[in-house]
Design brief:
- This protein starts with a strand and ends with a strand.
- It is mainly beta and 73 residues long.
- The strands form two sheets. It has a four-stranded antiparallel beta sheet, with no helix packed on it. Strands 4-5-6 form a three-stranded antiparallel beta sheet.
- The protein is built from one helix and seven strands, in the order ββββββαβ.
- It has one domain.
- Helices cover 7% and strands 42% of the residues.
Length: 73
Amino acid sequence: MNLEKVTKINQIKKGDTLIITGDTLKNEQIKAQIVKVSADGTEIIFNKRQNKFFNLGMFLSGNSWVKELSIVK
């Protein structure tokens, strides 16, 4: 399994598998299938049922609860 760190806003595509690490010890790495990428490419929904999502632009600027983000290749 190869991991590619996310560094650009257009890097994630619908259907990609992500490894997400949050900013607290409660958050563990999550392997998540992307459900939807919004038109501007910033809202990533990884669990539609539980309304779990993050803003990719905020992650890239360092203002998100997501602290590390990689794509499984």
